[in-house]
Design a protein that fits this description.
Length: about 50
């Protein structure tokens, strides 16, 4: 269940990039970081469920 909070946080991080706009390299890095965090959480859930 702890992954749920992190997944919501990563989705909010990704959404904030689109709300404020992508206008610099830092914005792209923020989007990449949020996306990587989301993918890591999804992979962790998939791994736990497959065991």
């Amino acid at each position: 269940m702890e992954w749920l909070g992190q997944t919501v946080a990563s989705l909010c991080w990704i959404a904030s990039v689109f709300v404020y706009g992508i206008s610099s390299t830092g914005d792209w890095l923020q989007l990449a970081a949020g996306s990587a965090w989301l993918m890591a959480n999804l992979a962790a859930v998939a791994f736990v469920e497959s065991e």
